[in-house]
Amino acid sequence: MSESKPTKLQIYSWYMRGKRAFRGKFKNHYEVAAQWYEKAAKAGHKDAQYELGMCYLRGEGVPKDDYTAYCWFKESGHNGHADGQYLADDMLRVHEMML
Length: 99
Description:
Layout: H1 8-23, H2 29-42, H3 46-58, H4 66-78, H5 82-98
Helix pairs in contact: 1-2, 2-3, 3-4, 4-5
C-alpha cells in the first residue's frame, strides 16, 4: 500500500520541528533539525528547502557541501523564496568567477 501525500499542516509541522530542534540545547540538535528540514523540503516547503541549504552551506547537522546547498537554494528559489534564489545566483556567480 502506498503512503498518502502529506498535508500542508503536516509539512509545516515538520518544518517547525526542525526550527525548534535547530535552536535546541540537546546533543545532536543540528542533525535532528536537518532531518526535519529535509523531510519538509522534499515535500516542497520552500522555507525548509532554504534552511536545509543553510545547513549544507555551514555544515550544521550534515556534511558541508556547497553543491547540495546550491541545489536546495535553487529549489527554494523556484518555489518563491527570494533569499534562496539570491543565494543560488550568488553561489553560481562566485563559482563562475573562480573558473
